[in-house]
Design a protein that fits this description.
The structure is a homodimer. Chain A has a six-stranded mixed beta sheet with strand order 1-6-5-2-3-4, sandwiched between helices. Chain A has 14 helices and six strands. The radius of gyration of chain A is 21 Å and the shape is globular. Chain A folds into two domains: about 200 residues, Rossmann fold (3-Layer(aba) Sandwich); about 90 residues, Tyrosyl-Transfer RNA Synthetase (Orthogonal Bundle). The first copy, chain A, is α/β, with parallel strands linked by helices. At the A-B interface, helix 4, helix 6, helix 7 and helix 8 of A face helix 4, helix 6, helix 7 and helix 8 of B.
Chain lengths: ~325, ~325
């Protein structure tokens, strides 16, 4: 209602649930700015599934002229992966930051926090949060237990920090909206409990689903590289991976022409639906033609491959430029 | 054996136990330097009981030309005291640092770490330590439980950091000796378990007892101010508190002259023994005269009061000067 038209990802219900979004929009209408907060756990290369909440966050930044804190939880990834060193998570955090910047955030309104490097400000706020959270809460909410290491037990306090950092720095109580994938919800439930105890507003949230992988079922996951489109994939990678993808099609062309395909189980269709086909008329047409058997999987794959390659070409160009912009975006250089 | 003569606090067995001290001295004889590490939890003003390990640490610094890391655990005190703010613990840390400096440490070889302000380096090392410590260990060693806050659960990793900070900064594996009160031993037991897993040497330790309070039994504790000699006490405070102190004397002068006093339960005697009477001949004489009834409690109190007032006058002079030296001593200004 504030941004002219609804973003594709809202229209198509990729962002499907929220908490206090109406409240934060009411505040905005009453003239009160809010900050955005999202993040990334740097455990490997970025794929197009990761980009979903970032693209949506950029849309929110533009629509509401909002400052964004983007948190790189290199500490978390170090603490949960037995064989990760701090060097490795740091390198991944810097690499992943290029993808963040390539999404097109406004350098003047975006600060990328590196948990380990920005620990001076993070720790100071995190211990205030931590003082209000008991081990039983962490065990119940995150399923941690006796054998969990004490770093990861402390970590939920660190992940809460960016909700409050603008308030901390400005001395005002600034509302915060978190666009993020639904799996992060437990963190915000804990954070919302703590916020009033520290005199802060509860952060609002808007949640997205996961993008499906290219295999049969499951989310896009970097641990299955052939089912993933990475942001640094070559055109050949894209062609091959899309060509090998699972679809909602029939075993033979003849059967498909007769009975039609099933877009509701088809990653190829979902990528168009959620990311690559902005035109509502066209997406409806794709759906109908798949259902009727007029659009064969091969054709659809070729169409999508072209769109993804075009998208990645642009992204990779901006990703290259991001190397020069990185310093501007880092919180430590504020 | 390395310092010419044994320090008073070693001779009189105030420092009474150790772990790996012989090993660290062997290393030293073989030409390898070690660093010293001790600290303070800034929860209130400093009293003469707190000075005991610091005075001994200064002796070690001089004798072995050793670098000292002095940790102010303002985070810990914030996390365990429900009504403490970070502002309060920070102010106490800065105030207590004056007493540390007044003990006479070498500014060139001493770095005072403020946990919260130095979190940039602390956190980086602490999460490496934390990754190797489970909640069960922390619960077993420190008696923490389900209701403990996640900040204090993480804290043992923070207290371990100064053992490794010289190695971290220099890239060499530098041995570390911790002179501290015996109650801190559990931290070092955990730290010694973790050290080899991170490729560091296990820290060595030397433990001291607590100085008794001026009341009957118990250690000197700031929560009972009348049983404490604070470093900022006036001469009148000292006279009053010492005069009101419990002693090992008899109910009446007559009985005391007849049966003698009991120095083994007498704080007045212990202060002379552990801190204020360096001369072995004289301390023996005091002991004998107390036992025989030749030294009355009033006399002994007056003698001790004079020594303490003289000591505090000097300490307070150096404490005043410490305000100008503070910046030089802070780790963050390294």
């Amino acid at each position: 209602r504030h941004a002219g038209e609804l973003h594709l990802q809202l229209r198509r219900r990729l962002f499907f649930s929220h908490r206090d979004l109406d409240w934060i929009l009411d505040m905005y209408e009453a003239g009160r700015k809010f900050v955005l907060y999202t993040g990334r756990g740097p455990s490997g290369p970025v794929h197009i599934g990761h980009l979903v909440p970032w693209i949506f966050t950029k849309y929110l930044q533009d629509a509401f002229d909002a400052k964004l804190y983007f948190q790189m939880t290199d500490d978390e990834k170090f603490l949960v992966n037995p064989d990760f060193t701090l060097d490795k998570t740091r390198r991944l955090a810097y690499d992943n930051a290029l993808d963040v910047i390539a999404v097109g955030f406004d350098a003047k309104k975006t600060k990328i926090i590196m948990d380990v490097e920005d620990a001076d400000i993070i720790y100071k706020i995190a211990i205030r949060v931590a003082k209000k959270i008991t081990f039983s809460t962490i065990r119940a909410v995150f399923g941690l237990n006796e054998s969990s290491n004490i770093g990861i037990i402390f970590f939920p306090a660190v992940q809460a920090v960016p909700c409050f950092i603008e308030s901390e720095l400005t001395g005002e109580n600034v509302p915060c909206l978190i666009p993020a994938a639904i799996d992060q919800d437990p963190y915000w439930r804990v954070t919302r409990d703590v916020a009033p105890k520290l005199g802060y507003l509860k952060p609002a949230q808007i949640h997205c689903k996961f993008l499906p992988g290219l295999g049969k079922g499951g989310k896009m996951s970097a641990s299955l590289p052939e089912t993933c489109i990475f942001t640094t994939d070559s055109p050949e990678d894209v062609d091959r991976k899309i060509w090998n993808a699972f679809t909602g099609g029939r075993p033979t062309v003849k059967e498909q022409k007769m009975h039609g395909g099933d877009p509701t189980i088809c990653p190829i269709y979902y990528y168009d639906h959620y990311l690559f086909e902005d035109d509502d008329r066209k997406i409806k047409e794709i759906y109908m033609k798949c259902r009727s058997g007029d659009l064969l999987c091969g054709e659809h794959k070729t169409m999508l491959s072209e769109k993804i390659k075009k998208f990645l070409k642009e992204h990779q160009k901006r990703r290259e430029k991001a190397k020069d912009l990185l310093d501007e975006f880092l919180f430590k250089n504020r």
